[in-house]
Amino acid sequence: MKDLAVESPLNEQEICVKCGFCCDGTLFSYAVLQAGEQGNLPEKIEQNYSKEDGREFFKLPCSYFCGKCTIYDQKRASICSAFRCQLLKDFSIDKITQANAMRIIDNAVKFRDEIYLLYREIFGNDYRLSFRNLLVDLAKYGNDAFEDDPLNQSIELLRIKCNIYETLLIKNFKSIKNFERLISTSMEET
Questions:
Q1: What is the C-alpha to C-alpha distance for residues 38 and 164, in angstroms, rounded to an integer?
Q2: Which partner from 2, 6, 118, 128 sits 20 to 30 angstroms from 76, CA to CA?
């Protein structure tokens, strides 16, 4: 098994600990495992293990994430220390300062919290879904936004906020290539 663990500079670790979007289900629904990792992982990760089309992964949000990783100093999946979001990549090449990275994270958390609040107001659910699970749940509702029903208008507003948030996640955290592809596709359609 290839060990992808990388010791990150302290400033990068501070950004990761502040964020956690790759662990809490904001960016992804699952984390990909390396071949041979299954069976050698912490118990809760093993419990969320799945295999599909030859790919091994565990479902997110990670059960060990509670505002921050609770097993950060213990053995965990290789992806946990190897994944580097776009924000970290930008920080490592001095494209962004640590203060700006922290500000981007704070703003992303506030925006996500606004989405959660609107979701709870519309559906009355008091439990907290991950952002990915909220999107799955939202997809269950029809697209009847053009009717005069205030509920449908609220659902459409929620969809719009989720689309904007997803674009911000792609731009700041996922991959600048994906963001550029999204923008160029949108420009071609207009």
A1: 36
A2: 128
Q: Which helix (H) or strand (E) holds 56?
A: strand 55-59
Domain boundary among 46, 64, 83: 83
Contact residues for 160 (Cβ-Cβ < 8 A; gap 6+)? none
130, 61 contact by CB (below 8 A): yes
> What average pLDDT does this structure show over 48-57?
91
Range of the domain at 135: 90-189
Tell whether 116 is covered by a domain.
Answer: yes
Would you state the pLDDT for residue 72?
83
Q: pLDDT by residue (tens digit) across 126-164?
A: 777 899 999 999 998 876 555 677 788 899 999 999 999
Give the DSSP letter string of 69-114.
Answer: BTTTTS---HHHHH---HHHHHHHTTSS-HHHHHHHHHHHHHHHHH
120 and 67 inside one domain = no
Distance CA 167, CA 163 (A): 6
Query: Going by C-beta distance under 8 Å and a sequence separation of 6 or more, which residues neighbour residue 75?
Result: 40, 41, 42
